[in-house]
Every structure is written in structure tokens, then in C-alpha cells.
Amino acid sequence: MSAGIPTSAHAPVTGAGLGLRRGLLTALESAHAGAIDFMEVAPENWIGVGGRLGHRFRSFTERYPFSAHGLSLSIGGPEPLDETFLIKLRRFLDDHGIASYSEHLSYCSDHGHLYDLMPMPFTEAAVRHCAARIRQTQEVLGRRIAIENVSFYTPLDGDMSEREFLLAVLREADCDLLLDVNNVNVNSVNHRYDPCDFIRAMPADRVRQFHIAGHYNEAPDLIVDTHGAAVIEPVFDLLTEAYRCFGAKPTLLERDFNFPPIAELIAELDRIRVLQSITPQSWPTPVHADVA
Question: Would residue 250 count as lying in a domain?
């Protein structure tokens, strides 16, 4: 089965979006029209939520286009995929008219949740394992999904690089890519590679969306991905490079805690929109790694 195009009440997301967090609900309810182009939700936080809170969430999905970004599917995990959860997830996406779903190229469970996104070993066996689970997920959801490159903090054993592993999974699974630009920046510092080379190597026909976020500088050679601070200039520079390579794809600002006034978040969204508007769209498509 080739994952088809789902029925959706909304057009695909575009522009600059913000992650919906419960700590931001009140501020977001008063945001002026046009301040936020779309929102992203972690389904695990809202599946089965009813009552007043469920009605508040419904008011957002009726007002904004949404994408969904999973936290707990554990694409690389050793246990069988939770198909009961996938069926609930499909109902949730259909019920709220959400066409786009993504997950992390990582694992987060092994006979219980680990409460962190653990990186995969960069091996051929891991490629085959992850790809088979991504194909199974697409089959159950009836959607082509995107996987996200994740940040990690210790070198991993394997017979390929992070970039080679990601490209191999995209090719084997026949899925799309959510390119987290901040994670590229974090990993490039922690593991000493050129972030622009990493971005330019991604397959243009698979890139569907970008994420950016803030982080914490633990040391000059160690960055921790926190989603708890403002986006820094090097990340905006990398986002500009991503736009140059792939066009002004929908871009999500992630902020998970330490929330500033909503005006500051909207100012970051405005910065994204400015970059999207000035990035030349007529430049030749760069040559990228072949994953077809």
C-alpha cells in the first residue's frame, strides 16, 4: 500500500507555526488574526481529552490548520509497534482534520517509557528495523509521514554517519523528512561537522517541514537541545540556508517551557516570515543525495 492523501478539513500547513502547549492556551486564545499561520500538536497530550479542556482544544483546530508531531511511537524501539495507539491516533487526526504527522527517528521505550528520545545506532540493521516500522505506521495511519532528525550527545557505534543513516532510512522507508534545523546546529557543534553540508545533502523531494528552537550552551563544545529559549542567530542562518536549498517550507517554532510574553514568540514567527518572503524561489534546485 502506498500511503494515500488523507481526507482533511484543512489545506496543508504553510508559513510560520507555533507548537500548542497547555501553558500557552490562554495567551494563544487572545492572539490576533494572522499572528500564527498554523499550530502543531503532540497527539499524546490530547487524545481522549474531553470536557472543558477538550472544547478549548477543538476551538484551536477549528480556527487554525494543524500538523501533528508524535512523542511516544518509538520508531526505533525493540518492542512491536503499538497498533492500538496508532488506530486511536488515526481517529484523532481524522477527527481534527490534521493531514500531516511526523515522528522522531529515535526510540523512547523498552518495556516501559524511557522519557527521553534515544538515538539509534547508525547501522544497516537499524535502517531496516526503522524503515519497516515507518512503513507499518504509514499503512495503519493511511498517511505518508515524516521523520525528524534528532539531537544526541554521545558518539554512536555504527558503520555509517548520522547523515548517511538518515538518508538510508528515507530511502528504505519511502517517507518524508521533517528537518529540525536546530538539531542540525546542536549536533554539528557537539559532533564537529559542517551543518550547511548536512542540510545540503538532504533530498529536496522529501523535505516537508522545518523545526527551529532555542537551546542551552553547556560548554563551548556542548549544546543541549532544550526548547526553552529564544532562537539564536546561527540557527536563523541555517534556516535561511535550508530555505535556499528547499524553498520556504512550513516552519514550526518550538517552545516547551520558560514561556515569554506571547508578543516575543510572535516576533520570532515574524522573523521566520520575513526570511520566507525574501528567500529566492527561482534559484536552481541544488543537487542532493539520491534516495529515490
Answer: yes
**Structural domain includes residue 119:** yes
**Phi and psi for 168 in degrees, rounded to 5?**
-65, -40
- Its pTM surpasses 0.85: yes
Q: Using 50, 70 and 90 to split pLDDT, how confident is the model at 142?
A: very high
CATH of the domain at 141: 3.20.20.150
In a domain, 291, yes or no: no
Min mean pLDDT across 31-35, 40-44, 47-51, 136-140 is at: 31-35
> Is 13:250 a contact under the CB 8 Å cutoff?
yes
List, in sequence order, every residue forming a beta bridge with 177; answer none if it has no partner: 147, 207
Reading the block at residue 5, the C-alpha cell is 492523501
- 192: how many CB neighbours lie within 10 A of its CB? 8
Average pLDDT over residues 208-233: 80
- Minimum mean pLDDT range among 8-17, 89-98, 183-192, 227-236: 8-17
Angle CA 243–149–186, to nearest 5:
80
Dist CA 60 CA 57 (whole Å): 5
Closest among 23, 37, 29, 44 to 65, alpha carbons compared: 37
| Domain span including residue 268 | 16-278
pLDDT grade for 3, boundaries at 50, 70 and 90:
very low
Instruction: Count structural domains, the chain.
Output: 1
User: 3 in a domain, yes or no?
Assistant: no
Q: Is 196 left (phi over 0), alpha (psi -120 to 50) or beta?
A: alpha
